[in-house]
Amino acid sequence: MQRFVNRTALVTGAGQGIGFAIAERFAAEGAHVLLADIKESVLIEAEAKLQAAGYSASRYVLDVSNPDQVDETVDRMIEERGAIHILANNAGIAWEEPFVDIKHENWRRMIDVNLNGMFYVAQRVARHMKERGEGAIVNMASTNGLAGEAKYAHYNASKGGIVLLTKTMALELGTAGIRVNAVCPGYIQTPMSEAIDDPAFVENYINNHIPLGRVGKPKDVAGVFAFLASDDAAFIHGECIVVDGGQLA
Ligand SMILES: NC(=O)c1ccc[n+]([C@@H]2O[C@H](COP(=O)([O-])OP(=O)(O)OC[C@H]3O[C@@H](n4cnc5c(N)ncnc54)[C@H](O)[C@@H]3O)[C@@H](O)[C@H]2O)c1
Q1: Among 16, 158, 161, 172, which residue's beta carbon has the most beta carbons within 10 A?
Q2: Max CA pair span of the chain
Q3: CATH number of the domain at 8-241, out of 3.40.50.720, 3.10.50.40, 2.60.110.10, 3.90.1010.10?
Q4: What does the record give under GO molecular function (predicted)?
């Protein structure tokens, strides 16, 4: 499939994990991919991998929680590429912390990156898409935005916020030609989840929580981002698609 020929897709948190898989999928389907990440080392590696595969990609160091940096970087992308047709608003952070122990600075950082950061990027890109009268935005939520998980109050709150941010954006942007949806993955094996959980935890989690009997892979999520960003999803708007191997069932 080549659904994104002559399209430019901005992917945040594109250096590794699910973000890289999304960028790879968009690029494989013909898009030029704007790779944005706070970490330059992973960004350089991601760009090199995509270019070695013959894909079209360029990289931008960006902390999504810094609104001035978001505006400046998105302006530069538009200047260099002419248009952004697709936004995969993916960058996020996570760690465990019991509710009563959450340090205020940790609460603020989680909300700053996962909720405020997605808002800053979505708002700046939506303004540009509105001027052009077309666009597709896919926000990264989580099953943790639909049901709670102990020791993740700050993360759950940030992802629950993304679900309603997505629905509200859909209400306001649809007639401007901009479709907005979200993806709610369950347990996906990435550097993020590997940093939190040891193999024994993961095995136990699979056995007790995931009816498909395995954890998800980044490409399981990337395919859904590509679907939602494509014309195959032309009438899907304000939706949150769960990608969790049956966990919430
Ligand atoms: N892994 C899972 O099980 C899972 C499940 C549901 C949702 N998610 C969500 O998917 C997204 C990607 O997660 P992942 O597992 O691939 O994580 P990851 O840590 O493997 O990758 C996240 C990427 O985002 C970048 N990033 C972090 N803070 C940033 C910032 N302030 N500005 C720009 N880039 C930043 C990191 O450098 C990294 O490259 C996150 O929003 C996460 O909450 C993950």
Answers
A1: 158
A2: 51
A3: 3.40.50.720
A4: oxidoreductase activity, acting on the CH-OH group of donors, NAD or NADP as acceptor
How many CB atoms within 10 Å of residue 210?
A: 18
Handedness of CA 230, 234, 163, 9 (dihedral sign): positive
State which residues of the chain have pLDDT below 50. Answer: none
Question: Could you tell me the pTM of the whole model?
Answer: 0.98
Q: For 207-239, write each residue's pLDDT tens digit.
A: 999 999 999 999 999 999 999 999 999 999 999
- Ligand 1 pocket by C-beta < 6 Å: which residues? 12-13, 15-19, 37-39, 42, 62-65, 90-94, 113, 117, 140, 142, 185, 187-188, 190-193
Q: Which of 55, 120, 155, 187 is catalytic?
A: 155
The count of other CB atoms within 10 Å of the CB of residue 228 is 24
Could you report the per-residue pLDDT of 133-142, keeping only the tens digit for each?
999 999 999 9
> What type of residue sits at position 186?
G
> Token pair of 60, please?
């931008």
